[in-house]
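A.,

Following up on our hallway conversation. Structure tokens first:
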């Protein structure tokens, strides 16, 4: 009995392992990406412009703070649904997924997890509606992979805090109305919700980027920025705060690049069926089929890894080292595939009329931010040996 053909972008039918609600979330985001993102994102990349006109619809679909409970304005989705949102958004562009990832995982999540009831009520509903955009101020110019080497400081002055320092590579920095700034205090590292219109606060957009061009990346400068005591997140102290936020974001990043890789594979599948060389379709070439098969193998592995990661997170059993393994594997997978697909496209692959070069350039950033490949390898190595080699 003949078998029905498989979906080339989902050879193991991972979609069948999703609930009806998870499939509905994926489908709604996929339609948005197909209808609204893909027609404009190549031009946005060329123009180094984030498509702010899409923010309202992204919010209306419940994609900002998707896992935040409904009582605070979120959609109350599970973690697998959030992963699928990231996957479909990054199928459009890493910059779009980065925007939603920062808003959801790096700003809304810590407000929900560590904020006061007043902070939750003040910020979360407005952020879910896209009325307030946030950014996450952790990384510093000299810090990179060593956040403990923080120079930004906050000192008490009466009932206020005065913050001085700078942050670098901050997604959404020039879009944001509020910055979650992490600073050293006499009582350890603390997080502060700083309105970006505060006196002494400045955001300077980073230009001349060859990656994440359809994203806003900024440097933040804080010169005697004064905030009230109520601006501090009261329920977390030390690096546990920002690192738990990064774990939440890395979870989404483990899903996102699958979408980028699927976009590249679909593009070359279509191209190799249409392109004729030496009197036959490029798809009929053995070397091409071997490369396509290897691409599909790596995407399938990443899909299954991400889904199990999501099920573990929803069950409350997820370990940070498991996120490191997935972030390392899946971003490296997507970057290698984007480069491979660019090569299969030949000369056509170097223009943004095709998606592969755009995804390849974007993924050069994704493989670096929120933990480089080497950092995540060392996290897994520490888990295997019990020895910290950092």
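Then the amino acids I'd put at each of the 390 positions:
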């Amino acid at each position: 009995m003949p078998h029905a053909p498989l979906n080339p972008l989902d050879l193991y039918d991972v979609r069948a392992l999703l609930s009806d609600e998870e499939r509905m979330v994926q489908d709604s985001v996929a339609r948005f990406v197909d209808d609204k993102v893909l027609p404009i994102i190549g031009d946005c990349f060329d123009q180094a412009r984030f498509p702010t006109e899409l923010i309202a619809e992204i919010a209306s679909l419940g994609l900002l703070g998707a896992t935040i409970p409904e009582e605070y304005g979120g959609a109350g989705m599970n973690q697998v649904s959030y992963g699928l949102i990231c996957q479909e958004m990054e199928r459009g562009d890493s910059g779009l997924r980065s925007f939603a990832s920062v808003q959801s995982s790096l700003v809304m999540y810590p407000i929900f997890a560590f904020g006061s009831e007043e902070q939750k009520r003040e910020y979360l509903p407005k952020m879910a509606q896209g009325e307030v955009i946030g950014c996450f101020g952790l990384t510093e110019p000299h810090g990179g992979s060593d956040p403990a080497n923080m120079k930004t400081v906050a000192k008490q002055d009466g009932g206020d805090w005065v913050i001085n320092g700078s942050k670098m590579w901050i997604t959404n920095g020039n879009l944001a109305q509020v910055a979650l700034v992490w600073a050293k205090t006499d009582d350890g590292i603390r997080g502060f919700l700083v309105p970006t219109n505060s006196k002494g606060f400045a955001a300077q957009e980073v230009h001349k980027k060859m990656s994440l061009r359809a994203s806003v990346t900024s440097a933040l400068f804080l010169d005697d920025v004064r905030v009230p005591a109520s601006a501090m997140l009261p329920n977390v102290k030390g690096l546990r705060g920002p690192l738990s936020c990064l774990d939440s974001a890395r979870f989404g990043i483990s899903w996102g690049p699958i979408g980028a890789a699927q976009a590249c594979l679909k593009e070359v599948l279509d191209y190799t069926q249409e392109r004729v060389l030496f009197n036959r379709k490029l798809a009929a070439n053995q070397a091409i089929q071997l490369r396509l098969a290897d691409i599909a193998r790596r995407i399938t592995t990443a899909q299954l890894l991400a889904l199990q990661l999501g099920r573990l997170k929803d069950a409350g059993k997820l370990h940070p080292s498991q996120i490191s393994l997935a972030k390392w594997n899946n971003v490296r997978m997507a970057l290698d595939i984007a480069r491979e697909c660019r090569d299969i496209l030949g000369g056509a692959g170097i223009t943004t009329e095709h998606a592969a070069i755009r995804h390849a350039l974007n993924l050069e950033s994704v493989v670096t931010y929120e933990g480089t490949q080497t950092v995540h390898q060392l996290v897994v190595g520490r888990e295997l040996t019990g020895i910290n080699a950092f």
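The chain has ten helices and nine strands. Curious whether your intuition agrees with the design.

B.
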